[in-house]
Structures are given as C-alpha cells and as structure tokens.
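Changelog note: in this version the structure field was regenerated for every chain. One regenerated record is shown below for reference.
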Amino acid sequence: MAKSFSRNAKFENAAGRAMKVEVRRDPGNFLEFEFVIPSGDHKYMCYEDLRIEYNRDRPVDVVIYLEGARELGETHILPADIRANEKLEFNFLNGAITITRTRGHFISRLGLIIKLKQVAEQIKSRGK
C-alpha cells in the first residue's frame, strides 16, 4: 500500500508471468524484503521503504526477475528510479526483462492522493 506522505512509484507487471522484486543491502547481499507482483497487477513502493536514510553507508540493490525463473535473467533498478518516476512498467521481451520508466507530477505520486483515487474507484464500481 502507498505511504500517505511519500512519493510513490507504481511497479506494474505487464509480462505474462509473476515477477519478484527483491531489495538487498550490501555489503553482504542481505535480503531486506521482497514481494511478488502478479501478472497484470501492480504494487506501490516509495523511496522511504528502502530505508537509505538510516544506512547511508550500505548501498541498496533492487532486483527484478520472473518468479521461479531467476536463471532467465534479472534486471536491477536504482533507488533514484523509485524516487524520480511515477510508474515503472516491467515486461519480459526477447528473453530479457525490460523497464519502461514514466515520470509523473509530484502531487499525483503522493500516497494520500493515490489512496483517494483508489477509494473513488471503489465507489464508482459499487455504483454500477
């Protein structure tokens, strides 16, 4: 879920299979957290989730790969991509994971605005 007062990036899976996102911290390649994005679905993540401000001397690596098929390849994104883009769309084309970055307006990326949009969509769907 989107954090209310942070700029959030929408991680959207456009591939035909579920994708896994891992956040690892160096040195040591320790797994901080991971989540799965089902095919055709999305999840929100914000720069604050990476907890960089608490561990400035330990770089963060964000890795994306097809769930259960890491041997097919993986791709890395920078924490700055999460901070700078409204949407990161992942796809699997020609044997490689591709990323389409979409910049957006600051206001539309705030978690509070995202939550309000989700509530409006739920109200609309109940009215039909």
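Spot check on this record: Strands lie at 8-13, 19-25, 30-37, 42-46, 60-66, 74-77, 87-93, 96-102. The chain has a mean pLDDT of 84.
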